[in-house]
Specification:
heterodimer, A: mainly beta, 7-stranded mixed β-sheet, B: mainly beta, 6-stranded mixed β-sheet, 4-stranded antiparallel β-sheet, globular
């Protein structure tokens, strides 16, 4: 079954305590992304990766880091979380571009993060 | 710059009513893809449909139908005979060209279907 798996699903932490949200996909997709969802704003892209060792900033990258050492994994790192990073986070992966039927973005189940 | 607008923040209907969710987009690209996703109360994002900019045919899937009109830059979504299980937040999204990486999402429309 095609899956994007995020962990943890829920996380409460305190300001400044480094954390990592993991993301793994089993579809051998090249493209992976991280989004945050905030009320009234929809989903906004944080970072994306087009392949191993290739990452780039999305619309709201400040305060976040990512890495892509393996094709299947794309962790999101918050080195020093702050309360304004309290949000719902989604990891996504996508197959090749163009008109391919695989050009659909699949999302993980989400990680609800609270930074106190 | 690309932008997706969903002017309806919240909609409430009574079960069995038809409801249309509006989506208006802005892009300068000639090749782009439009999507609808459903986010039920459980929080996951469920893919509903993808449409490319060269295919203006309307699509029907069961009680769901989509009306794509390039002339008005709209990609509206209609649910016929709504059911309580349709209650969710619905997102319209746009991605540019063939290898665009940045999916631009609208703010979402929260649909409540009352029994």
């Amino acid at each position: 079954e095609a899956q994007v798996t995020q962990n943890p699903r829920y996380l409460i932490t305190v300001t400044g305590k480094k954390l990592t949200v993991t993301c793994s996909q089993n579809m051998n997709h090249e493209y992976m992304s991280w989004y945050r969802q905030d009320p009234g704003l929809g989903l906004r892209q944080i970072y994306y990766s087009m392949n191993v060792e290739v990452t780039d900033k999305g619309d709201v990258p400040e305060g976040y880091k990512v890495s892509r050492k393996e094709k299947r994994n794309f962790p999101l790192i918050l080195e020093s979380p702050s309360p304004n990073q309290t949000s719902l986070y989604f990891c996504a992966s996508r197959g090749p571009g163009g008109g391919s039927p695989k050009n659909i973005q699949y999302f993980g189940a989400g990680t609800r993060l609270s930074v106190l | 710059a690309q932008k997706v607008t969903q002017a309806q923040t919240e909609i409430s209907v009574v079960e069995k009513e038809d409801v249309t969710l509006d989506c208006v987009y802005e892009t300068r690209d000639t090749t782009y893809y439009l999507f609808w996703y459903k986010q039920p109360p459980s929080g996951e994002l469920v893919f509903l449909i993808r449409r490319n900019s060269f295919d203006e045919q309307n699509e029907i899937s069961g009680r769901y139908s989509w009306n794509f009109q390039k002339s008005t830059s709209s990609f509206n979504f209609t649910i016929t005979a709504s059911q309580v299980v349709d209650s969710a937040v619905y997102f319209c999204a746009l991605v540019q060209d063939n290898y665009g990486q940045n999916f631009v999402f609208g703010p979402g429309t929260r649909l409540s279907v009352l029994p």
